[in-house]
Amino acid sequence: MNKTCMHALVVLMLVVAGILPAVAAGSRRVQPGDVAPEFSVRDLAGQTYTYTPQGEKALMVMFLSAKQASSFKAQTDLVRILGGIQESAKAMDVVIALDDPNAFSSLTRLKPEYAGQMVVTLDEDHHLWGRFGAIAMPTLVVVNTQGQVVGFEAGYGYNFSPVIHDYVNKALGLETNATQASLTQVDTVSNGTQAAKLSRLLKAADMMAAKGHLEVAIVEVKKASAMDPNAIDIRLALAELYCKASKGQEALDTLQDIKGRSPSQNAKILLISGWAHRQMGHLDKALDVLVRATELAPRDARVFYELGRIYELKGLKDEALNAYRHALTLLF
Amino acid sequence: MSGVISRHGIELGLVVMLCVSTMTLAVEKPVTPQTTCVTEECHASYKTQAVVHGPVSLGECKSCHDSDNPAEHTYKMTREGRDLCEYCHLDPAAEQNVHEPVAKGDCLQCHDPHSSASKFLMRKDSVALQCAECHKVTEGKKHLHGPTAMGECSICHAAHSSENASLLTMKPTDLCVACHVVTQEEIAKFEFVHEPAKGDCIGCHDPHGAETTKMLKGDAPDLCYACHEAVQTIAENSKHQHGVVREAGGCLKCHTPHASTVRYLMKDNPETLCLNCHAEPQAISADEVLPSFTSEIKDKKFLHGPVQDKTCSGCHVAHGSDNHRLLQKAYPELFYAPYNPENYALCFSCHSESIVQDAKTIDLTGFRNGDMNLHYLHVNKAERGRTCRACHETHGSNLPSHLREAVPYGMWNMPLGFTKNEDGGSCSSGCHMPKEYNRIAPVDYTSSQAAPSGNAPI
């Protein structure tokens, strides 16, 4: 018997033994949409695991090498990804094909915690590798519960983690809002955004106001307002601070050009205007704007409290008490 | 003239008046115990400042002072050291970390015990000025942190004691994000977060101020090297260095400091970052220019995996390398090389060594004639093994498996003449006679064609 015949005989014996697929594999890589190939492997304890695409279970096959830094990076990502799918993992078997049985303790440590079935096998002879048409490691193949390949990722690309996340979500039918663009796009934290700066300025102003440092708080909010002059909420915050600092005219000036620009804020604009007018001794004007404020915000206790103060200053005791009582009713 | 007072006389009169008034106004120190010490005549200034200590305000000097010798007008304190203040001001040193003056019982270092122009009876006009007596944290700093600039040291620091180091008012992990809320919210959404950004902001930032607006403790790359020593070693000592890494701010040309959706906190996909420079030819020495990478892969149908994945770092080390072209590991530079796995360490970073070590396979590669591994046949030779680059373009080509259209051989580019079919393919290159291979129905090289291991012309 020549060497070729001997080799063919060995292959035939392996096929019969179920270690190799029934049809000798070429190097053709499985493609997304293909039906995943059937296969059987033995895990490190000698137990046989068989996958069939008709088994209604999702599948992840990963080919990893103990000798590669990129495989090590991939496995750290996989520990995080698999550790995160929790109960959904029951619907997905994971087959880890290693070239060294002692490789990747963190992945094998995950095995007892993984809610699904995790099989660690040694693929030194590359039979499973050939079955899926892998040519590089790490390679990941993810198959959905209908037995269709949803993703084939060869190598450790920069976006390995989000791509595998997406494959797993798709295979398990989990919600995903990933798009092709989002999977390739790199996002970073940008705390230099205007929103971040505004947030910092307003936070600082809050703290200063709480400490009674109203002038400092006003400076911070003015900076915020200068950054976003059209932000009505910032203007209102500034006007309110002016009132707290007994600067009624500045408060009114701050509100001057935002009146009527935001109907939802009109009540608050009137409230602060009333407060400012009271400080300046314009009680009739204050009364006028606060009565309008009560019409726009009949559930706002603060408006009725401020109205009560005007009545009190005008010597209208009964009206003042009514307004204060109404404010309390709204609060309790 | 009798009605005229001479100038000399006026001066004399003034001196006499001054002496008389001094005698009248001067108060002798009392030599008997008094009800209070703060009167219009004595220690009056204690009550004239904006903020007056409670006992002083009430005239209860005895809260703190005991008469020692009334005859000599000497007094002693009712309690010693910190106990004196803590009798009313309950244990300011209750927490683990105590401000040094408090620990020493020297409350008067910061506080005036009687009255002050500023809140909390500070000796200076503000908290910031008081702290600056000892803590010169703003000196020489161009940009100050908001609370520092506002003189509000107490936003971040407790004055007396704290459970946190540096008397911080909160845990360091919580303190910065108490204001930098947006940054915290953004970081929480990211998978890859710089370790210091998880709560050790002062690892990189000076919390009081710095020369730069970002208030960094230094500039990249030096600041980064403080932790990333291995990168510094590579960047500075590698045989082949990458210029951009050692430029001022170089690290930040590719990396983002807080968090990213991808590993290594890359600012963008590696290819985009590399193309910031390598879209154009780059002179790397006096006599060598790297071609434009953009031109190299333009319109190519088959790209090498890492190129397809836009992951240049699959093969190249951006920081520096002892291998040519900043390759991560060894890769033969020439057409021929004796087979030694160490020479192919780069390729074996992803591809199995078995592809050129197993003479026979039905799984490892499609480049086989039956089970005869043709990669093994070409590469695995003790002398004149064909290196990967003999047949494959590194980045991409218009042939499957990014095969070369022509094989470089000295000054000559020999067309490869590769065609692929369902079960195999053929080569009609200048290297050897035209040959076919077939995975399913192996070609019998012993009869119809010369054995491929035999008489290849080159």
Form type of chain B: rod-shaped
Number of helices, where a helix is a run of at least 4 consecutive DSSP H or I residues of chain B: 17
The helix fraction of chain A, in percent, is: 40-55%
Ends of chain A: how far apart? 99 Å
Strand order of the largest sheet of chain A: 5-4-3-6-7
Radius of gyration of chain B: 42 Å
Low-confidence stretches of chain B: 1-5, 14-25, 453-458
The rounded Rg of chain A comes to 35 Å
Distance N terminus to C terminus of chain B?
140 Å
Determine the strand fraction of chain A and express it as a percent band. Answer: 5-15%
Quaternary state of the chains: heterodimer
Describe it for me?
The complex is a heterodimer of chains A (332) and B (458). Chain A is an alpha/beta fold and 332 residues long. Chain A is built from 14 helices and seven strands. A five-stranded mixed β-sheet of chain A has the order 5-4-3-6-7. Chain A has a two-stranded antiparallel sheet with strand order 1-2. In chain A, a hairpin with a 5-residue loop joins strand 6 and strand 7. Chain A is elongated and about 95 Å long. About 6% of the residues of chain A have low confidence. Chain B is of the alpha+beta class and 458 residues long. Among the domains of chain B are: 77 residues, no CATH class; 100 residues, no CATH class; 130 residues, no CATH class. Chain B has 17 helices and 25 strands. In chain B, the strands form twelve sheets. In chain B, strands 23-24-25 form a three-stranded antiparallel β-sheet, with no helix packed on it. The radius of gyration of chain B is 42 Å and the shape is rod-shaped. At the A-B interface, helix 1, helix 2, helix 4, helix 5 and helix 7 of A face helix 8 and strand 11 of B.
